[in-house]
Amino acid sequence: MLKSLKLGQFQGICRGIASPPDGVALCQGLESLSIKNCTDLTDKALIAISHGCHRLSKFEVLGCKQLTRKGMWEFTHNLRKTLVDVKISYCKNLNAVSSLQALEPIRDRIEKLHIDCVWASIIGEEKSLKNWSKLQYLSLWIAVGESLNPLSLSGLNDCPSLEEIQIKVQGDCRDQPKPFMDAFGLSCLTCYPNLTRMILDCSGVTGYALTAPVGHTDLSLWERFFLSGIQNSTLNEVNYWTAQDVDVNQRCLFLPAAGLLAQCGRLRKLFIHGTANEHLMMFLLGNPTLRDVQLREDYCPAPDNDTITEMRVGSCCRFEDALNSSSRHVPD
Question: What is the pTM of this model?
């Protein structure tokens, strides 16, 4: 019996509730369904799928432009006893508020959620107080230069069980002279009392690493924008993907990140996905709670005969020795 199905660039996967069950709606054993870029997927077809696939616990929909809040609401209502993991992304008619409203039937059951931070409909609306009692994992996509602050206004202000958040930032900083506000908004995460892990993925952010033209901001100041407020968080584990300058093939940690991360009073584990200079890594030793630091994945140490100050094998060893030094009294 088919339990998991992923479809992309398909047409006619289901005709809808006005017709006899067909296509995906016949897969009664499905527990996980992913639909991407199906341009003819309508609300009626989605509702038909919810009637046929009554065991679905995981559902993701990406790039389906005809879906609306009404169709998604009916879909989640029909699957309110099983559906606990939902991803809604790049759907034209489903911004942050409409996506959350569509999930209202499973608000007290959902455990994992992804939405796009498109805030257009929040302007002028009163704060919506909603309790997402079982939500443990939240994933967000947001365009570069936008703020996280409207997150609580969208209806995600009360998530007592939330433990992990993943934030994907994407866009070209070179198209913007400077950020439109003082900070990205990580301070708003303090409303989640049990949030301990964060993935901040800025790998999709492109800007000027070294020299920005007059009137533009380089990546070091954008990094301050992204990370301001993290020092007030309850996080004890952070994965940070740095932004990049594709023109000079550089993806690295800058001084603002080193300084702000060193001030995180509860941070225990830090994973940096990018390059770093040794003297900036040493800033992190000022954080008395930090006990595990790694440069990971796309990081490759500079060769020993290189003259740049990027971390080399020897630099990594010196930092590791300093981090594990007996003179650092790290609380257990």
Answer: 0.91
